[in-house]
Design goal:
Elements: H1 2-27, H2 34-37, H3 44-54, H4 60-72, H5 86-121, H6 126-138, H7 143-157, H8 169-199, H9 202-209, H10 214-243, H11 246-251, H12 257-266, H13 270-298
Length: about 300
């Protein structure tokens, strides 16, 4: 078991290093930040001085080595535009992202789990047809389109909720629904298929012969076995809710980490983009690593 855990941790660290290299190279293909930081009447001498000051005059390999050295000390660098440590910028924005992520996670679990269970239990019924419709829509509708649609219907036409902003509970409703919709769809689809398989097994038939109530069979015994299959997807969903908020935060003018990354891309602020992508990548890899470790603990065959 210890060997399996160490192998997964090693793979996670290698994946994180590969993502660092890819992001470091890609952000430098977007353009020269000096052109965005200086006024139009700049001189070549000013450009060269700022490029040297920011360390962008060195070869890419040297820049990457310096970046790794700072990263080993917990330093993500400074924002080119705001001259503020990237760690501080992320710390200011992360509460908003976590708030929306928790709201979306709550909706995903409170809707996705019961809908997946009962769509399998009443297979072919109205709930099942509704669940399959939600699954198809959630996995085909883009998040930004759904966000604009909800704004048009609930904020503009009916004026039930605000179209954006941050600070009130009402501001949280539309972004959380938009962010959770894809996760609900995937969870319902996977849990439904797993529950159908489990409900047709011999031990469930035996429990019914014993006279065990249906709600105990569904929520205690069947879900325990079907949930192992859905657990891997839940880990991906949790990571996606906290890292896939870039478009949602932009649509709803939500002051979170995802919107900070968009601002960094627009201004070619390399350190900001690298810092946010490092956070997102680490969260995603950590969630998948945690799921792998839970599988090892819960499934004796993997040990």
């Amino acid at each position: 078991m210890i060997k399996a855990v160490l192998m997964r941790v090693g793979h996670a660290l290698l994946s994180l290093l590969a993502l660092l290299v890819i992001v470091f190279c890609l952000v430098r293909l977007t353009g020269d930040p000096v052109r965005y930081l200086l006024p139009p009447e700049r001189t070549p001498q000013q450009e060269q001085y700022l490029r040297e000051y920011l360390g962008l005059d060195k070869p890419y390999l040297t820049q990457f080595g310096v970046y790794l050295g700072h990263l080993a000390r917990g330093d993500l660098g400074q924002s080119f535009r705001m001259r503020t440590p990237v760690v501080d910028l992320i710390a200011q924005r992360i509460p908003a992202t976590l708030t929306m992520g928790v709201g979306a996670l709550f909706l995903t679990l409170i809707i996705g789990v019961p809908l997946g269970i009962y769509s399998a239990y009443w297979r072919g019924g109205r709930i099942d047809r509704f669940a399959r419709f939600i699954s198809a829509m959630g996995q085909s509708v883009p998040q930004f389109w759904l966000g604009y649609l909800l704004i048009l219907i609930l904020a503009v036409n009916f004026r039930l909720l605000p179209s954006g902003g941050y600070g009130q509970f009402s501001n949280l409703v539309l972004p959380s629904i938009t962010l959770a919709f894809g996760g609900i769809a995937g969870l319902v689809r996977l849990l439904r298929s797993s529950m159908i398989e489990v409900l047709g097994s011999d031990y469930v038939k035996f429990l019914r012969v014993k006279g065990l109530p249906e709600h105990l069979i569904l929520w205690k015994h069947a879900l325990r076995n079907a949930g192992l299959t859905a657990l891997s997807f839940v880990g991906v969903v949790v990571a996606g809710l906290f890292t896939g908020s870039v478009l949602v935060e932009t649509v709803f003018v939500w002051p979170g980490v995802g919107r900070l990354m968009i601002e960094g891309v627009n201004w070619r602020d390399f350190n900001v983009v690298q810092g946010v992508m490092l956070l997102f990548s680490a969260a995603y890899i950590a969630a998948n690593l945690l799921v792998d470790l839970l599988f090892i603990v819960l499934n004796p065959r993997l040990r």
